[in-house]
Amino acid sequence: MTLSPLAQGAALFRPHPDVDLLLRDVLESARARAHVFGTEYELIWSEIARSVRGGKRFRSAIVLGTHEALGGSAQRAAVEVAAGFELLHTAFLIHDDLIDHDWVRRGKPNLAATMRAVSMATGSEEGPAQQWSEAAAVLAGDLALTRAHRLIGGVDVPRPQVEQLLDLLDETLLVSAGGELADTAYGLGLHVPDLDEALLVCESKTAMYSFRAPLRAGAILAGASLAEQMELDHVGRLLGRAFQLVDDLLGVFAPEDRIGKSNISDLREGKHTALVLRAQQLPVWDRIAPDFGRPDLDRETADAMRAALAGSPAPHLVEDHVRQDLAEVEVRCVTADLPDAMVEFVAGITGHVRTALDDVVEHVRASAR
């Protein structure tokens, strides 16, 4: 069959009102209960809610879209699981910012930065305020993770499906944490990965909880066969890897107002992305290496590094890898025994990732000028 180029892509990332309402109710209830422990604890829940509101909601959209495309009828359960994945995503972001010592998320102060500012406004010294804010971020991530587990594990569906969802959540946490640990080791220089290891991190972190697990969760709720679930898992692995490779390119070449964070932090931290690993095999690396991973990397030097990378084959090699992954997704969808509606839904996700890739290619060209 012929794949629709964007299919449902235009509507894919619109927040679902039922998911938003459930998240609001869950988090407001927790905030109200937290009030007895003081305004700071109440603020943590308000900040978790703010973090949730800022997301694109595509993980919940994948759960709901997959459930619908496979003919599922457990609509309320799908909404609850979808909301659980948004809370899972929020928990990972809060902990990820803490691990990376980042204080900005989506162009605004993140949870830890807000808590630090509140502490300093009440007279705390900078050192204790930072330590307290980091503790608050650890706890906030744990709280969001627990709420996600409760939503996903508490759905009103037959017990075998609940057990499958809980097994999936356990697998998601196990794989994602392993990917985060490896990524942190690479960033600290404890081990320099090769390209296969870097791609495995993409599959373990972003792909697992953002694509593979939401696709499988929607399929479980729809009563899909194990074969269908495993096919969607493979599709999700390819989509997630492609998505992360695009995100890594955006993190270097896109303007900061486009990505909502620093576009020199990856270079400053010495992050071994596929882009960097490709560049290390090319003559351009002689121009990059002296400043790569410099904690005091300034913007002028970073701009020169960016221009050198943009003028090299490195970003185009990463682009080729993304296009190959997306092409494999399309081939698998055509040859796999999946319903037409599911094929069309996956085509919408593929089209969105391809559009993001085309966008970053333009940023690379601009950086090379």
From TrEMBL:
Its cofactor is Mg(2+). GO terms for molecular function: metal ion binding; prenyltransferase activity. One of its GO terms (biological process) is isoprenoid biosynthetic process. It comes from the Bacteria. The keyword Magnesium applies. This is Geranylgeranyl pyrophosphate synthase. InterPro entries: Isoprenoid_synthase_dom_sf (IPR008949), Polyprenyl_synt (IPR000092), Polyprenyl_synt_CS (IPR033749). The lineage of its organism: Bacteria, Bacillati, Actinomycetota, Actinomycetes, Micrococcales. Belongs to the FPP/GGPP synthase family. Signal peptide: none annotated. Keywords: Magnesium, Metal-binding, Transferase.
